[in-house]
Automatic annotation (TrEMBL):
This is heme oxygenase (biliverdin-producing). Keywords: Heme, Iron, Membrane, Metal-binding, Oxidoreductase, Repeat, Transmembrane, Transmembrane helix. One of its GO terms (biological process) is heme catabolic process. InterPro entries: Haem_Oase, Haem_Oase-like, Haem_Oase-like_multi-hlx, Haem_oxygenase_CS. PROSITE patterns: HEME_OXYGENASE. Pfam families: Heme_oxygenase. Its EC number is 1.14.14.18. Belongs to the heme oxygenase family. It is an enzyme of class 1 (oxidoreductase). GO terms for molecular function: heme binding; heme oxygenase (decyclizing) activity; metal ion binding.
Amino acid sequence: MERTQSASNGDASEYGGKVEVLSPEDLSELLAAGTKEVHEKAENTQFVKDFLRGQIRKELFKLGAVALYYTYTAMEEEIERNKEHPYFAPLYFPQELHRHEALGRDLEYFYGPSWQSDISCSPATQLYVDRIHQIGEEDPVLLVAHAYTRYMGDLSGGQVLKKVAQRALKLPPTGEGLEFYQFEAVHSPKAFKQLYRSRMNELEVDVETKKKIVAEAVKAFQFNMEVFNELDEIGKSIQEEVLDAGMPVHGAGGDISKCPYYATKTAARGGTEYACQVAMAVLRHPTGQVLFAAWVAVLAGLAAWYLM
């Protein structure tokens, strides 16, 4: 079978080979077929469906970026640890693919200079992170599954999500807050994905190992779905008005706090600071302004009646 001549890792953005002829036994084909069902399930989670409709809210988008930051940090730590492993070295493209630094810049945009002390890893994300570290130490060939699931998705559907988020959240056209989606060293996503799949297919792994990689990719999708479902549940606990109005964060539209649990915790303490923050957030919302004006008018009428 004729295969494309792979470019060196240092020049991965350019892919100028012959048309690749794939076999059903190729790892890339096995992964595509083996993850088709779970991939469709992930795309049909409520969080993803709302996102694609442009109904993503800034607080949940930020928390999604936090989850991605911890996930990519773990994955890229293990990739660095195993970059010379024969089953992963051909897929080592740090300049083209690594995302954790870009995610750090996005989080600084949303949370401000103290972002690292203002975020934390959620329970669902922690399970995902723990699994990545486990296989990085015990069975590095399975990193192929996680790299395939994340990076190939980012180069495909991720570009659609970037445009949706930019419009829905009214983010700057210059790209602030969306650096995660910008692969500046990849000049042609289509060509790069072809190169990446070719490198995967050239890995000298046996049939059983290929099955293990496919099974791990299914797990990776399931971990992602758990994160999506967790975000969806968090969204149900946040007041819509507070989310939509927002409080200023780092010079751009933000929201009442950096953590969705903060509002509930502070309200339980009966804090006046929380009440003031909610009031300020509501007043920034057009509906809140109308209601406030109506309330003032009612009070003025009552005062006039009382003084007559």
